[in-house]
Specification:
The protein contains five helices and three strands. It is mainly alpha-helical. InterPro entries: Fe-S_metab-assoc_dom.
Length: 135
């Protein structure tokens, strides 16, 4: 697992119960804004997510892949998951992102606090990013 993502996983492992939800909500507030010139309409929807989520993968430079996510403020769980992926994977080489275990999110320990459907949404986000990188 790439070091930035491993550090996030460690942060979640260090807290219990409701503190995991609090941490997820903190991540939701830190979802990076879209860069100028990238509009949600030009991004790919992720219909597996319960809330509207859009992503864009810029792999023009495969040594530093850029990931962008858009989710509404009223969808804090979805925004939190997107922020984890953005902060944990943005700017990494394509090969490192492709090497992330598909089920890495289980290590966050959110299964008791977040519905399986929402966890599948995070899995779908990562799967779509990887699909873009495989081209």
């Amino acid at each position: 697992m790439p070091p930035p993502l491993a550090e996030i996983v460690d942060d979640f492992k260090a807290v219990d119960g409701q503190d995991k939800i609090t941490l997820l909500l903190e991540f939701s507030q830190d979802l990076p804004a879209l860069p100028a010139g990238l509009e949600q309409a030009a991004m790919e929807p992720v219909p597996e997510c319960q809330s509207p989520l859009f992503l864009s993968v810029d792999a023009e430079d495969r040594s530093a892949v850029r990931l962008f996510f858009s989710a509404p403020p009223e969808a804090p769980t979805t925004r939190g998951f997107a922020s984890i992926l953005a902060q944990g994977l943005d700017g990494l080489p394509a090969d490192e992102i492709l090497g992330v275990p598909d089920d890495f999110y289980t290590e966050l320990g959110l299964a008791d606090a977040v519905s399986p459907l929402r966890l599948r949404g995070m899995s779908a986000m990562l799967a779509r990013v990887k699909r873009h990188l495989r081209g």
